[in-house]
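Example with several molecule types.
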Amino acid sequence: MNNSSNAERLDLRSMTLDEMKELTVNMGESAYRADQLFLHISRGVSNIEEIKQLPVSFRKELAKLAYIVTPTIHTVRKSKDGTIKILVRLHDGIMVESVLMHYRHGYSICISCQAGCRMGCSFCASTKKGLARNLSAGEMISQILLLEQLGNCHMSNLVLMGMGEPMDNFENVCNLIDILSDAKGRKLSRRNITISTCGIVPKIRELAERFPQVNLAISLHAPDDERRSMLMPINKKYSISEVMKAVKEHAAKTGRRPTFEYTMVSGENDSEKDAHKLGQLLNKMNAHVNLIPLHIIEGGKSLPTKKNDIIRFQNILNKYGITVTIRRSLGQDIDGACGQLKLSVKI
Ligand code: SAH
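Resulting structure tokens for the full complex:
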């Protein structure tokens, strides 16, 4: 037994292989022990004692210095379309939400990277109570492990489109990518990871430098600064033209095709004129646009754009050579859709 609290110990699920190597070597063990440890942690082991491949003495010493973070499932909701949403309880009682979606090409998991959010977008439920705290890489990975266990499946795609702003918890998100894609662990292709951001320009540049294979999605939601600033306060700091410049640089450097998310709000950003403005903005960019009908949130007064108007909007964008998908809103009946992930703490 050890008496140290988790606050003083290292969370193994949040550690990259290099960090684990450093730890094991500092403990006087050979580096290959780190490989073994990393593989077991990647497979989701939740207790150091269970890693029988490691010598008993090493496990004992390790447990004095480290632990494995183990968030638990508080609530499960299953949608008619097979989507599963879970409310995950973190060690301090804070809840975050994560969603498992089954597509033809495999299983996609959408995770939260922060409890709450400080970006303040007007139509988004996750930000209404501000930011509670950042999640560690281990807490993000735990959401994946819990959903895979529940759905008895293996994730093929990861999207950071749950609660929080990934670029506002950048170092932990970078660790997450490193850990998940490591060839000695889960080997998730970085091309199967998508980071969605409200447009924090310096971090878009940094992402291109550090992880050129990772996909970038930009939450745009309006074709001009005046309206975007009303919907998304971050636009006052990084205007549309600054975001577009960074996205173009990102695309040129990485060769990845950017996605723009555009939440359609009736009478606010969905006119034919808006479609033309958006078309001109994204013209010649080889961009993809994802139109998302607004999900009405508690206390929200805006309404989603009607299906026919969305199609009209899509057709105009197509004329500019832009590919457009209308997001199939999986899990709407369980509040699992975008912007409905919120801090609904019911402990
Ligand atoms: N902070 C990141 C990721 C989280 S939001 C970002 O801003 O991209 C994931 C996507 O859902 C974003 O495009 C967001 O704008 C959208 N979204 C948020 N609330 C929504 C709502 N009520 N209806 C439809 N889409 C919403």
